[in-house]
Amino acid sequence: MAAPGPSPQQMAAMQQQFAAEAAKRGMTPEQFAQKQREQLTADAEKLGLTTEQYVAQLRTRAMQQHQQQQQQQAQQAQQQGGQPGQQQQQGQAQAPQQHQHQTQQQVPVNPNNPPDPKAIAVANWLRSQNLKPRTCIMDGQRKDMFKVKRAIRAIESPAYAKAAAKKNSLLPPVTDRASAENVFKLLPLSLLALRVSKVDPHAGHDHAKPKNRTKGLWTVKIEQHQETDPMMHYVWLYDGPQWKQKAMAAAVVAGIFAVVLFPLWPIMLRQGVWYLSVGMMGLLGLFFAMSIFRLILFCVTVFAAPPGLWLFPNLFEDVGFFDSFKPLWGWQETKESKKAKKSKGKGKASAPAVTEAAAPSATTASATTTSAEPASTPAAAVKRDLMLHYAFERNSDSSPSEEVASLKGLSMFLTVLLVD
């Protein structure tokens, strides 16, 4: 005898839950239903079944689970001496909630359980993969956040299968999408990664939002239900092996003891430290002297050859040590040069043509320079054209006295270009 279908109350609860899931993803119920059909078709193709056979199989499983739940409830009712009718009503009331848990794929979390070795192995492997993590703020601390879909994609990759096939590997095997999700669920079960959602840290405050907020830096909170939807965000609570931190702490302690015991060092080591400190002080004094000289040079060239020349223009920029001394010199950036860089970065191909039409003499100078340096690239020629075009525009809008100073600066610039 076939099991009875869901009641109207259950159907209404299912429809409400379906609409809520669609609204959570920013879709209409029709769009969400279409997405579910596509997912069912993909899962059926993986199992080598048609969509109808796969749906019938899922329906059979659901009906069997429903029958088992009813039998368990009837047995509990008989043991407790309650009325079967009341137990059936309670079962019908609990059915929408159970369907809701199955739809959202909630993962129970028990903080009292110790971390599973398999979960730690999965966490270590995922930490070594490129999940495109983002930095977020949780409880005032910076954490790494990632999307579920990227973690599932990494678990389904051939690299994971290769790592899981190694001898003595604790990584669980993955055969399909469901097993990949089960492997990912090991992380929240062991509290290695938890689902979070974005919150406004200034919500409920009377003051206005700060203007210096960092774009893309979310403030998040941990959600109660650990779901495995592909678009959900998880935050890492597992930092990996702590041997690096322990080694750094040991090195710091050893350094402190070495400084404290400095009077007991051999005389040669103490002399070496003295010479080293004198050399460092000399380098520091040379750095300050170079900084003062480049500032004086810029102040002189601002009036002699505007817009001004900087020696080591990247000296105080946020770059590496060697990149701070590259290039050797550079002109002061102006609003026009910044706009030209932005337009060049956006890939506007019309900039070289406009420059050639506006300044034919500049094009000639650029061509001369190119013939003298056959190894120069088109990007360098475009940059020179832009600089010359800016110089000619400056001359056309300035007064006669300013034209003389600008022409002097332009002649200086052309001389350096030709020599270079």
Automatic annotation (TrEMBL):
<feature type="region of interest" description="Disordered">
    <location>
        <begin position="339"/>
        <end position="378"/>
    </location>
</feature>
<feature type="compositionally biased region" description="Low complexity">
    <location>
        <begin position="348"/>
        <end position="378"/>
    </location>
</feature>
<keyword id="KW-0653">Protein transport</keyword>
<feature type="compositionally biased region" description="Low complexity">
    <location>
        <begin position="1"/>
        <end position="21"/>
    </location>
</feature>
<keyword id="KW-0812">Transmembrane</keyword>
<dbReference type="GO" id="GO:0005789">
    <property type="term" value="C:endoplasmic reticulum membrane"/>
</dbReference>
<feature type="region of interest" description="Disordered">
    <location>
        <begin position="1"/>
        <end position="44"/>
    </location>
</feature>
<keyword id="KW-1133">Transmembrane helix</keyword>
<keyword id="KW-0256">Endoplasmic reticulum</keyword>
<feature type="region of interest" description="Disordered">
    <location>
        <begin position="60"/>
        <end position="119"/>
    </location>
</feature>
<keyword id="KW-0472">Membrane</keyword>
<feature type="transmembrane region" description="Helical">
    <location>
        <begin position="247"/>
        <end position="268"/>
    </location>
</feature>
<feature type="compositionally biased region" description="Low complexity">
    <location>
        <begin position="64"/>
        <end position="110"/>
    </location>
</feature>
<dbReference type="InterPro" id="IPR004728">
    <property type="entry name" value="Sec62"/>
</dbReference>
<feature type="transmembrane region" description="Helical">
    <location>
        <begin position="274"/>
        <end position="305"/>
    </location>
</feature>
<dbReference type="Pfam" id="PF03839">
    <property type="entry name" value="Sec62"/>
</dbReference>
<protein>
    <recommendedName>
        <fullName>Translocation protein SEC62</fullName>
    </recommendedName>
</protein>
<keyword id="KW-0813">Transport</keyword>
<comment type="similarity">
    <text>Belongs to the SEC62 family.</text>
</comment>
<dbReference type="InterPro" id="IPR011553">
    <property type="entry name" value="Sec62_asco"/>
</dbReference>
<keyword id="KW-0811">Translocation</keyword>
<feature type="compositionally biased region" description="Basic and acidic residues">
    <location>
        <begin position="35"/>
        <end position="44"/>
    </location>
</feature>
<dbReference type="GO" id="GO:0031204">
    <property type="term" value="P:post-translational protein targeting to membrane, translocation"/>
</dbReference>
